Amino acid sequence: FDPTSRKFLSVIYTAFSHTLPLGWAIVVSSSKLSNKKIFLYSGVFASLVVLLGYRTQVVVLLLSTIFAMYYSEKIKNKLMIYSLIGLALVVFGLSFLRHFILNIGGNPILSRIDLTMSIFDLIVKNFNGNFQGVIHNAIFSSYGLIDGPKYGPRTLIANSIGVTGVTITPTIFGAVLMDFGTLGLVPYFGIFGLLMGLSNEVSKKLKGLYLGFYSIMVSYLIVGIETGILDFDVVVMYFLGVISTFYGIFRGILNAKK
Q1: What is the pLDDT of residues 69-84, one digit of tens each?
Q2: Rounded Cα gap, residues 97 and 93, in angstroms
Q3: Which of 135, 210, 205 is closest to 170 using CA atoms?
């Protein structure tokens, strides 16, 4: 749970952990596994991922599993609610465990909310549209794929407010405001909402692979409310999800013509 210790992690294992939620969501959406096996395997996978100290991946894995089970009609409303309550308890437990291990005082939930909102307040007041695309450009330039900053988006955001040595979660609105200003929120979330709506319609009709992608996209969207959608692997998953959505639409058009 200590951010400074993550530089010692295995790159291969870490990369695998980031692809596991998507693969598992597709399996849950496509297979006929019993609910008991799905919950059991989900618990095992979550236990493996939590060893890396990343709470986000645990939440995404479990949340996408719940959505995949619900939309594939493996569970009903009541069990979904119980599952979400269980997930909330897991999140609270991981947060309290992190505070205990790092010997951090205060309420882990309230302190996290206060920190995130105070950062967002700083962004709104001081960096509205100032970066002109640099933050989102860093998603790719930090991996050497294009020219630009060598640091990741959250590191740039942290440095811009005078914080070093850690990354900052700017909320889903923060990075967009920094790059494109208040008006930029309209086209950004307009396009985002359109793509999510199309993915939802395709996943409801075709299930399987499409539902797996949709479950992951919704899960990262919910988690991204706090963290922002600024990770390269997350952007790749959205890109693949959009491709699968349009392929599903194209496939439906072809089938309708037959």
Answers
A1: 999 999 999 999 999 9
A2: 6
A3: 135
